[in-house]
Specification:
Strand content: under 5%
Number of helices: 9
Radius of gyration: 21 Å
Shape: globular
Order of helices and strands: HHHHHHHHH
Mean pLDDT: 81
Structural class: mainly alpha
Distance between the termini: 47 Å
Helix content: over 70%
Length: 205
């Protein structure tokens, strides 16, 4: 959630303000820059979710987190370069949106599968809400203030890359426990299954 929230808001929400305040772009160009970013996000999110059904949630999300970590700074510097064509900048923002989509596609399913069915809504709601409140809701404030204090125009890329690096570490080394969608699926044993297991152990005893 950390990388998904931070990178998503950095590239999809904070970008217009950054372009206006830091790179002195006009309002029209700043707003238009988010169009390919959101298109890339929209195009990638569904295939990423479908792919995660086949290969697993973690590999797809890990790929997205690693791509953001590696590409955030080069992509942002491309936007900063006045000599870069509008087409290249549009492709860069679309790519940024797409890699965020790799995390957002499997993200909700991964969150749901992390918790047993009996506490799923509470766990999912708290994890999602707190992560977005801290790392998404505060992203604009953190980035704007950090740029103002340091004078470093690369701060948005560092913020997204650092968050995704932490997420990549957690995804690569985190527990593999999977919850269940309903009783009887992996992660939770139904009453009938418990009765059958108990009967077998009694017969074996």
């Amino acid at each position: 959630m950390l990388g998904w929230s931070a990178a998503g808001y950095t590239f999809l929400v904070v970008l217009p303000s950054y372009l206006q305040v830091t790179l002195h772009a006009d309002v029209r160009r700043a707003l238009l820059a988010t169009v390919p970013a959101n298109l890339g996000f929209a195009v990638a999110i569904l295939p990423a979710g479908l792919l995660s059904d086949r290969v697993g949630r973690r590999p797809v999300m890990l790929t997205g987190a690693l791509l953001v970590t590696a590409l955030a700074v080069p992509l942002l510097r491309l936007l900063q370069d006045d000599g870069t064509s509008a087409a290249a900048k549009g492709a860069a923002t679309a790519a940024a949106g797409a890699v965020v989509g790799l995390m957002a596609g499997p993200g909700p399913a991964l969150l749901a599968e992390m918790f047993p069915a009996r506490v799923r809504w509470t766990g999912l709601g708290l994890a999602y809400s707190l992560s977005n409140a801290v790392f998404s809701g505060c992203a604009g404030l953190i980035i704007t203030e950090a740029v103002r204090r340091t004078g470093n125009a690369d701060v948005p890329a560092y913020y997204a890359a650092a968050a995704c690096a932490v997420s990549a570490l957690v995804l690569a080394r985190g527990p593999r426990r999977t919850g269940s969608t309903r009783a009887g699926e992996p992660g939770e044993e139904s009453g009938n299954q418990r009765a059958v297991r108990k009967g077998r152990s009694e017969r074996c005893g």
